[in-house]
Specification:
An eight-stranded parallel barrel has the order 1-2-3-4-5-6-7-8, surrounded by seven helices. The protein has a three-stranded antiparallel β-sheet with strand order 11-12-13. Strands 14-15-16 form a three-stranded antiparallel β-sheet. The chain is built from 17 helices and 16 strands. The chain is of the alpha/beta class. Helix content is 41%, strand content 19%. Helix 2 runs parallel beside helix 3, helix 5 runs parallel beside helix 6 and helix 14 packs across helix 15.
């Protein structure tokens, strides 16, 4: 069963786990994808594009498990991407079988530049393929979405023909992608308006939009599309994705929330209607942003709209004075509306396990017993070091513990010696995948460099460190520090993340997290080669 065409609300289609994961270095394992999918369901997205099942066995399994665990009755639609080939579509259908509401999303390019250089096909051939493959997808599921790739650079008249054929063949949603982020808002709005006016059977399908942010216009393009008839927005958390990323979900949702009186008439609502335009629980936005950032290793820049660290900060004296007198002077939305709360002291070292569990539930975390036990041990360790344990501290602990990085190598000991007249020296002990404890030492330009060199001597996997970032979770000398690092190996990027009150320890754990991802990938490649031979 698919979502019926609706003109008075906006459907949020989240593609963080498909297009978002295509951002360099944002690769997620299956458990991490499940963690994000569960949070997307809590956030209230209508559709989760869980992956591209034919692309790899890992993607197939991820889509299948998300369909089983998140795609339940009352949950979101689970969508799988497929090219317009029978193998792709059959594989997607198989992966989506456990979902209560499955959707197959199939696509083929329609711009002349793609037809000539990529597909090497004529317009007539593309028309036939689109029609045949949509019908084939329809034989497996009721809910079929069709995308003419690079629609933004396609000849409008040809685009109208393809869409009309796809809808006639059974497409319930037609998606208009600005694949390379080329269009401006006026052009994109006109494109959607042209489709509404020239595709004879367009009333039988929902118009969706998908866009990239190469010119920084993706969100503006989508809002213009809404004004011209688009009713589904395909977006990602924090705007992650290929190249400059996708349209950011949090920006779209909050734009529609804050400016709903402006958008109401375009959706046939009274101007003064206070009813939300989407099903998103906006108070889950900040937590979802943090989770995706931590698991992908893609940091959110401080000046990022809605979820950036500075989004609700005021340094100017004039601004501070105005906000203290009335927040509306310089704030158009309440920080609490996205789930950003004041740093209140909630727990201390005498707090028990039940109080800890209850507070985590209030913050929106549902942990298994094993995850809860691990997080509680971390909390007790932190409470011994800090007098004030805040919600942000708890969030950092939990996000750090529930990350499902393959634990092949494990940090057992980190010890450093450094100073302004000393040679930075580090000793580390790692537990290897076969259970051995290996210790080595190294010197470096600083304590972190020395730690990484010592770890490299134990793990012995060539890599290039391309990014090292430290962020403070809260203010104060005893704040938790979060470390994010990215490694490159053979043109692939692997990220690692860890949090600790000791930055050196956090750095060691983050580095080993990334090395574990790299090591696991190398082991998979080795096993695949062995299986073929």
């Amino acid at each position: 069963m698919s979502i019926k065409p609706s003109q008075d609300r906006i459907i949020i289609f989240d593609t963080t786990l498909r297009d978002g994961e295509q951002a360099p270095g944002a690769a997620l394992n299956i458990d991490e994808k499940l963690t994000i999918a569960r949070q997307l369901a809590r956030l209230g997205v209508d559709v989760i594009e869980a992956g591209f099942p034919y692309s790899s066995p890992g993607d197939f399994e991820a889509v299948q498990r998300i369909a089983e665990t998140v795609g339940v009755e009352g949950g979101p639609i689970i969508c799988g991407l497929a090219r317009t080939t029978k193998q792709d579509i059959q594989t997607a259908a198989e992966a989506l079988k456990p979902a209560a509401r499955p959707r197959i999303h199939t696509f083929i390019a329609t711009s002349d530049i793609h037809l000539e250089y990529k597909l090497k096909k004529t317009r007539k051939e593309v028309l036939a393929i689109a029609e045949e493959m949509v019908a084939f997808a329809k034989s497996f599921v009721d809910d079929v979405e069709f995308s003419p790739e690079d629609a933004g650079r396609s000849d409008p008249e040809f685009l109208y023909q393809v869409l009309e054929r796809a809808i006639a063949a059974g497409a319930t949603t037609v998606n208009i992608p600005d694949t390379v982020g080329y269009t401006t808002p006026a052009e994109f709005g006109a494109l959607i308006r042209g489709i509404k006016e020239n595709v004879a059977n367009i009333d039988q399908a929902i118009i969706s939009v998908h866009g990239h942010n190469d010119l920084g216009l993706a969100v503006a393009n989508f809002l213009e599309a809404v004004k011209n008839g688009a009713r589904q927005l395909e977006c990602t958390i924090n705007g992650i994705g290929e190249r400059a990323g996708n349209a950011a979900m949090e920006e779209l949702v909050m734009a529609l929330h804050v400016r709903r009186q402006y958008f109401n008439p375009f959706l046939g609502r009274p101007v003064d209607s206070e009813a939300p335009l989407t099903n998103i629980d906006t108070k889950q936005i900040y937590k979802t942003s943090r989770l995706v950032s931590n698991l992908t290793g893609m940091l959110v820049q401080p000046n990022k709209a809605i979820v950036g660290a500075n989004a609700f900060a005021h340094e100017s004296g004039i601004h501070q004075d105005g906000v203290l007198k009335n927040r509306l002077t310089y704030e158009i939305m309440d920080a609490q509306s996205i789930g950003l709360t004041d740093n209140q002291i909630v727990l201390g070292k005498l707090s028990g396990r039940n109080a800890f569990r209850s507070r985590l539930r209030e913050l929106g975390f549902e942990l298994s017993e094993q995850e809860l036990n691990k997080a509680f041990v971390r909390f007790k360790e932190l409470a011994d070091k800090k007098k004030e344990v805040t919600d942000w501290d708890l969030e950092s602990i939990v996000n750090d513990e529930i990350q499902q990085t393959p634990e092949l190598f494990r940090v057992e000991l980190v010890q450093v010696s450094c100073g302004n007249h000393a040679c930075p020296t580090a000793t580390v002990t790692l537990r290897t995948p076969d259970g051995q404890e290996l210790t080595d030492a190294a010197t470096g330009t600083g304590p972190v460099d020395a730690v990484y060199k010592a770890i490299n001597r134990v793990v012995n996997v060539p890599n290039q460190l391309i990014e090292f970032s430290v962020q403070s979770v809260t203010a104060g000398i005893d704040a938790i520090g979060e470390v994010t690092i990215r490694l490159r190996h053979n043109d692939r990027i692997y990220s690692g993340h860890a949090a600790n009150t000791d930055i050196i320890v956090a750095s060691a754990h983050a580095y080993v997290n990334a090395l574990n991802r790299l090591y696991a990938a190398l082991q998979r490649q080795k096993n695949e080669v062995a299986a073929v031979s």
